[in-house]
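Please check what follows.
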Amino acid sequence: MLLINQLKKETKLSITPSVADSSQIMNSFAGEWTSIGENNHIIESTFGDYTYTMDDVTVNYAEIGKFCSIASHVCINPVQHPMERVSQHHMTYRKVAYDFADNNDDAFFDWRRTQNVKIGHDVWIGHGAIIMKGVEIGTGAVVGSGAVVTKNVEPYMIVAGVPARPIKRRFSKEAADKLLDIAWWDWPREKLETHFDELNNLETFLKKHG
């Protein structure tokens, strides 16, 4: 037997967003050092600096902060169907495609835009998680794999399950509040490079910057 390794060469990122050719993106914005993975479907969303997505991620009408880590098969803001109508099929608002009218139901799409999702900085969203419409996830939070988040998540809280519930805090409330005050995610690149190694030790970091 022979040991076989086939590894994809790691892409070196830059201030210009990196976007996989297989992804479909509409009316969206991304900051510096961002990376959008394979087969993403993104509509009217923003990504802060250094945030990345893995493969098969769907994002609709979302504001995502800096340094976020979004695993594969995550769905952020799955769009709603009009359940109050006789038919909830999208022919009732995508009328042109089905030749029912010359114009689509713009008011319905405008309503979808009001149900946006807001995600803070340095948030980790695990494989296959779903973030429902209108939810806000605080900075530093963790969403467990397969979770369905239907309610707001506090900063630095770990949530998991269906529906997602708080499991524990990443750090004490005192430490989390200090990190929010420091707001290292807003540091310029030069300062981040200077203090980069300190990000690996919470106690040292808070002593120096808190």
Remarks:
- The chain is about 15% helix and 25% strand.
- The chain has a mean pLDDT of 94.
